[in-house]
Amino acid sequence: MRGPYDLVRARPEPGFEISVDGVGVPVIPGQTIGAAMHGAGIRSWRTTRFGGRPRGLFCGIGVCFDCLVTVNGVPSLRACLTEARPEDRVTTGAAGDTGDTGDTGDSGDTAEIGDPGDLGDDGGSDGGGAVSGP
Amino acid sequence: MTRIHDLAVVGAGPAGVAGALTAALAGLDVVLLDGAARPGGQYFRRPAEGFRAARPGALHHGLDGFTRRWDLLTERAEVLLRHRVWAVEHTGETVVLRCLEGDREERPRTVTARGLLIATGAYDRPLPFPGWDLPGVLTAGAAQALLKGDLVLAGREIVVAGTGPFLLPVAAGLADAGGRVVGVYEANGRFGLAAHPMLVAGRAGEALGYGARLARHRIPYRGRRAVVAAHGDTALTHVTVATLDAAWRPVSTTTVACDTLACSYGFVPQLDLPVQLGCATRRDHDGSAVVTVDASMRTSVPGVYAAGESTGVGGAVLAEVEGRLAGRSAVTDLGRSAASGPGRSAVVGLGRSTGRAAFPPASIGPADLVPVDPSGPVPPDRPDPAAGRPDPALTRRRDRLAAFARALQEAYPVRPGWQDWLRDDTLVCRCEEVPLSAVREAQAMGAADARSVKLLARPGMGWCQGRMCGYAVACLAGEDPAPARRPIAQPIRLGALASQTGPETAQADPEAARPGAEPFPTEPPVSPAGPDRPEPPRDRPHRKDER
């Protein structure tokens, strides 16, 4: 069956894997973490604070904040905007667990998010608040 | 010493690139910023380089022309991709853009220019319905972005629903890429193609093209129908499709199995930056707040221009024309003093224009659908002396395209019966998980407008700051959506915020502190506490961030 690759005659570079809660997810260089997860059949990767509802991609372009993930210990990144890098370790969970200790950024009319030093979650498996990447 | 550009352009979509290129070809010192890793905005979103796509244009009309303009621009202007602008301030004679560089490193950066072109585009305008927060329910824009940018099919069995011509390319693109599109449900009347508004404006080719593609894939395209509920435990398994009356109230329903739903009920122009600057806004025909511009794309704030969807949703071709007009205005307004600098006098000295070749001719015709570049590349460093003068043909073309956009908006309105799709427990606000019942309770307590509803029931106070639910909440409150006032246009970590709004910043911008020097109101320093910030409700758990 024809797929997106055929449509644009893609000859992808060799891909790599990222780890999503310990499970390998294939990535073509340049893909976002959200697209790689969605493409791998992972449709939801966090639950909401009050109702525990599953959430994944919704707007796909960085507006809705449904797709938040923790990457290498950095919490509250929009999976749909964050380009995957080799060695990335993505951890998912409840919005209240993605690295924020209550500071989920819904303070009135602003959208600031928790300070990167304000970690202390179970997702920071690499430890520390340093932004990492190859 | 801070470098001061002539013109900063925010947005690397069709409008921003056209405006930046027009100004750069005329000799202005232009800087263009965009938060994405690749140019194109939403419409000309292209696959990551890692795919090595030989035919990326298979997903778009007119990508080749855009790419040529982009390549020309990169030779003549400073291009800053992966730069998200979170605030803009006027400091008297300059505009200061505060950015974060990188998609996760978020290095703060400040860009200063004498003029600003806002070309920030729009995002999907969803309507709530039961189950709209189930995984598998996406905006149509999300399905497009996954396909165009990441070559990921949004699902295996896909329903496309909503209203407006955007449904057609979304469905056709998904089907061309191998997705099984189970049905396309247009909530407004079903148009025989002969009555399709596209034909009215002479766009037979485009409308028939999509119709033929849908037919080839055997995709049913049904009018007066909408998805009024989505079902599934942890992910979407099926949807309820209702036949609608003229007001969009459900008349009868059927069930359609699918794993993905792509919804589109119009677009919301992105107005955070113009609102921060105090640019006047107006109500467009689709109910959206848009930036008020004159025929030359000047906003109400001197030195600030807007083009593309932020001035009214009208598509990529109109956006490009508006970008060119805005670029010409910037040359007119900023070029004279730019000419006083070294090398700038050439702006007025040359004879025949060569730069125009970067754009298609300003006539109405097939080029409206597929922008083409009829000539080869423009010789470098050859400014376009005509760019600062009015171009009646371009203005006429904008008028024609804008009239067409208005006709489309009027042909595909959102009708109030969608409110009947909601149940008491249907979430109106996804972020704060506010059900319809809470909105109604707030209204029963006396909240007579959207702002009061927001203060009492918290819709629009979560992560997305009302970007997803703002339209619905305004409709439920019985008013048109107002332009949202967001002092911070992009999420920013507190450390970066502190580093960019501290005393060092004030010293770097002495103009900002000069009393009485500003010809227009200067925004107060960006603060995490917006002016609109409501008190937290008493009956909800007190959160740490509500200090």
Provide a descriptive summary of the structure in words:
The complex is a heterodimer of chains A (134) and B (547). Chain A has 134 residues and is mainly beta. Chain A has helices at 4-7, 33-39; strands spanning 16-20, 23-27, 46-47, 54-55, 68-71, 74-78, 89-91, 93-94. Chain A has a domain at 19-96: Ubiquitin-like (UB roll) (Roll), CATH 3.10.20.440. In chain A, strands 2-1-7-5-6 form a five-stranded mixed β-sheet, with helices on one face. A three-stranded mixed β-sheet of chain A has the order 4-3-8, with no helix packed on it. In chain A, strand 1 and strand 2 form a beta hairpin. With 547 residues, chain B is α/β, with parallel strands linked by helices. In chain B, the strands form six sheets. In chain B, strands 1, 2, 3, 4, 5, 6 and 19 form a seven-stranded mixed β-sheet that branches. In chain B, helix 4 crosses helix 6 (204-216) and helix 12 (450-457) packs across helix 13. The radius of gyration of chain B is 24 Å and the shape is globular. Chains A and B meet through helix 1, helix 2, strand 4 and strand 6 of A and strand 8, helix 3 and helix 14 of B.
Q: If you average the pLDDT of chain A, what whole number results? A: 77
CATH homologous superfamily label of the domain at 19-96 in chain A: 2Fe-2S iron-sulphur cluster binding domain, sarcosine oxidase, alpha subunit, N-terminal domain
**Which regions of chain B have little confidence, pLDDT < 50, spanning 5+ residues?**
337-356, 363-382, 503-547
The number of E-state strands of chain A comes to: 8
> How large is the radius of gyration of chain B?
24 Å
The level of helicity of chain B is 25-40%
State the major sheet of chain A.
Answer: 5 strands, mixed
Ranges of chain A where pLDDT stays below 50 over 5 or more residues in a row are: 96-134
Q: Architecture of the domain at 19-96 in chain A in CATH?
A: Roll
Instruction: Tally the helices of chain A.
Output: 2
Q: In percent terms, what proportion of residues of chain A is strand?
A: 15-25%
- CATH topology-level fold name of the domain at 19-96 in chain A: Ubiquitin-like (UB roll)
Helix/strand/pairing category of chain A? mainly beta
Give the CA-based shape of chain A.
globular
How large a portion of the residues of chain B is in β-strands, by DSSP E?
15-25%
Query: Can you give the helix content of chain A as a percent range?
Result: under 10%
The separation of the N and C termini of chain A measures 36 Å
Cα-atom radius of gyration of chain A: 15 Å
Shape of chain B: globular
Give the integer mean of the pLDDT values of chain B: 83
**DSSP summary: helix tally of chain B:** 16
